[in-house]
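Q: what sequence does this backbone want?
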């Protein structure tokens, strides 16, 4: 993630423009992310199924973006992202004379997997490796879980959390759903849990 869902009328783009737009989104909006994180899905909708203001739409594009790899909590981050998004899409949208709208949802990364792996936290050495290789490669599960838990979290008033128990539970979950040998429930996995307890 990010995932761009681009709903458009059948008169908005041709095939070459779709390929160019996907390339521009990947390289202009998200140059700091592994390229394989970025998904762009074009969903063509005929006018009889696409209504704006209660009337069939013509030459219209509606973009729904899901962000997981990064969030934009600060105003300056939002402004910078919006500038890059505009730079990526405006040349094509302007040339085609399309009307368009977009919005972004920011989703917690806790339930995000790629190839059964927990994606590395931002700007870590492992993420840099994924970026350079342009593919996911395995690394220690507990390192990813620890990184996720060190992010700021708000605790409910009067309620504490046993982070050690939570870490063990998360490792159990990922070990149960991952098939590769580096994250399956075996002697090595039990050794990792023993180290966490100690």
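A:
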């Amino acid at each position: 993630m990010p995932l761009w869902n681009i709903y458009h009328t059948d008169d908005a783009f041709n095939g070459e423009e779709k390929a160019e737009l996907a390339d521009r989104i990947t390289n202009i909006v998200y140059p700091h992310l592994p390229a394989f994180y970025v998904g762009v899905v074009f969903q063509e909708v005929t006018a009889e199924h696409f209504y704006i203001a209660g009337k069939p739409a013509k030459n219209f594009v509606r973009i729904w973006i899901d962000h997981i790899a990064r969030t934009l909590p600060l105003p300056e981050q939002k402004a910078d992202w919006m500038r890059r998004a505009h730079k990526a899409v405006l040349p094509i949208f302007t040339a085609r004379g399309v009307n368009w709208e977009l919005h972004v949802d920011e989703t917690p990364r806790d339930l995000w997997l790629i190839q059964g792996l927990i994606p590395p936290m931002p700007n870590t050495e492992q993420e840099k490796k994924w970026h350079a290789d342009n593919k996911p490669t395995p690394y220690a599960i507990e390192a990813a879980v620890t990184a996720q838990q060190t992010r700021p979290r708000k605790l409910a008033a009067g309620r504490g959390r046993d982070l050690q128990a939570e870490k063990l539970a998360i490792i159990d979950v990922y070990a149960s759903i991952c098939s590769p040998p580096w994250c399956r429930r075996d002697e090595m996995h039990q050794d990792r849990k023993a180290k966490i307890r100690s």
